[in-house]
Structures are given as C-alpha cells and as structure tokens.
Amino acid sequence: MRLIHPRFPLIAALLFTATACDPGGEAPPAAAPSPSAPVGADPMDTMGPLIEMIGAQEQAGTVWYTRVERAEAMGVGPAEDPYTILYRSPAEYWRDTAAARSVGRSLGNDWDLASEGHRAAWERDGSPQRWTESVYGEAEVPQELPLELSAPYDDPYYDIGDTTRLEGPDLAALPTDPGALRNEFGLGTLARPGTEPLLPYHEAAVLPVPPEVRAGIYAMIAQAPEAVPFEGEDVLGRPAVGISQEAGEGDQGRFEHRLLFDPETAALLSYETIVITPPESDTSWQQPGEHARYVAYEEIGWTDDWPL
C-alpha cells in the first residue's frame, strides 16, 4: 500500500472509539499567528517546491484513501460562565475510481478544551465529560457512533464552492493548466469567494485526480487572490507550508484561513480556520488565537487496497 503520508502521525490524544476523553493534560495551545509576510511575498515561494514534488510522483493504484479528522469549536457550560471545547470526529474513506464505488467509517469522536484558557470555567462547571446542549441549543457531545464500515455506495459527487459540482466523468476530464482549472471550478473571475476564501481551494486539493492534475491544482492554489505564503506548523504540530488569508469583518468576526501541506512530501495536511476577532454573538466563549474549526489529514493518497 503506497500512500502520501504526512511525516508525523496524529497526536496521541485522538481516540478511535466513541467515548469522551478527560483533558487531564494540557489543552492545545492557541494557534500561533501567521508571521507577517514581506510586502510582495509570493505564495509560489511555498507552493513552488510542492508543485514540483507532486508533478514527479506516480499514481499508485485506483483507490483514493483519506484518513481525516474534522473538528468544530463549541460553546458549552452555563450561560453566565461558558467555555469552549473542540469536538473532534475522525473517519476514513475509500473511493474506488475504477469500480465507481466508495465506503467509509467513523473512527469515533472525542473532545478537548479549545485551550488552557477554558480550564477554570470547565472545572467550575464540575469538569463534565458529556454535554446535551451548547450555547446554540441542543447538542450531544460525544455521540455514540457505529464504527463498522458502511455498505458500498455509488461514487459521490464533489462540490467546489457554491457553484460547481463534479462527478466521475468530470474528474477524468479535468485539465492540468491552473488557469483552465480555475475556470472549471467556477473561480475564473479571481473574486474572493465570501467569508471562507480558501474553502474552494481546499475542496479542489482533496479531489481524487492523477498527479499531473494535482500539480495544476497546487499551482492554482498558489494564485489564490490576496493569499500570502505560510511557513510554520499545522494544528497537530507538524511542520507545514502553504497559504494563509484573512477574511470577515464587523459583527461577523474576522478569521485567518490556512491551507497547509507537508514540505517534505507535498501531502495535504490541513485546512484551518483560526479566530482573530470572535463574532459579536460568540465573544463570551470564543477567544482570539483559537481554532474555530479544522480538517486535518493523517493519510491521503492513492492505493490498491480495498477494505472489503
């Protein structure tokens, strides 16, 4: 089985069962702010070497495999003394492009405090391990989830932003030129797409396409409007390079968005949203520097292995 592996495994705190974790150790630190990019800094400085690496790779197999963790910040606890947890949901998926079938399974779910700044409020709340409501209403954290493989289902479709939906034949016909890809994905105007400007680029980066098309996608990512180069660590503490962009204003808050890759393998590592200024409605529980949400990849790439 040959996959593109990030160089470091998921942090040991991840639990692959449907049970909660007790954050007896330290909670994740707040995200380090992106270093200020020099005026005129070019995202190609970080993306260029990745494009070369991807373009030189060979496709090994017809099954696209991803092992991924999605996390969302949630405000919980008493209304007068709320605090923030990160609700994490790992899962894995296989897409057999030759047979047009897919399977997947949950790897459970868990949680942790969003940062050490919330520990005192959590302890004042009695150090609970489960919640049935959040600041927005009913919630169930953690959930009891089935851990078995799903039955095979037909090939999924892939959405890029709000305007483009791709199916199997569309993927097979994608060009390699970044400008042509931008047009295919509905990004031809180079306009910033709303409050999550890097979301369509993340959605493009996970498509099951051959290396030559992926290299074109990486080149397209380097041309994302108003993006700046990033070099540092991802949410799991792995060395990372990629692009960063800020978006949002007013009572909706302001966030930094990061699309990050392994500098040694060119594998996609994460798509992260970090609070700069919380939305007006969330100032009681959300703090600057904390993750509002993230998608982190432990493994992603082509293989011949099929789990059934």
Topology (SSEs and partners):
Blueprint: H1 44-56, E1 63-76, E2 83-96, E3 101-106, E4 110-113, H2 119-124, E5 131-134, E6 137-141, E7 153-154, E8 158-160, E9 164-166, H3 168-172, H4 178-184, H5 199-205, H6 211-222, E10 228-233, E11 239-247, E12 254-261, E13 268-277, E14 291-303
Descriptive report:
- There is one protein chain.
- Helix content is 16%, strand content 33%.
- It has helices at residues 44-56, 119-124, 168-172, 178-184, 199-205, 211-222; strands at residues 63-76, 83-96, 101-106, 110-113, 131-134, 137-141, 153-154, 158-160, 164-166, 228-233, 239-247, 254-261, 268-277, 291-303.
- The strands form three sheets. Strands 1, 2, 3, 4, 7, 10, 11, 12, 13 and 14 form a ten-stranded antiparallel beta sheet that branches.
- A hairpin with a 3-residue loop joins strand 8 and strand 9 (164-166).
- The chain is globular.
- The model is unreliable at 1-20 (pLDDT under 50).
Descriptive labels:
308 residues, alpha+beta, 6 helices, disordered N terminus
Report the structural category: alpha+beta
Distance between the termini: 15 Å
Low-confidence stretches: 1-20
Largest sheet entry = 10 strands, antiparallel
Mean pLDDT level: 87
Strand tally, please?
14
C-alpha Rg (nearest Å): 20 Å
**In which range does the helix fraction lie?**
10-25%
Shape: globular
Strand content: 25-35%
Number of helical segments?
6
Order of helices and strands: HEEEEHEEEEEHHHHEEEEE
Summarize the structure.
The chain has 308 residues and is of the alpha+beta class. Helix content is 16%, strand content 33%.
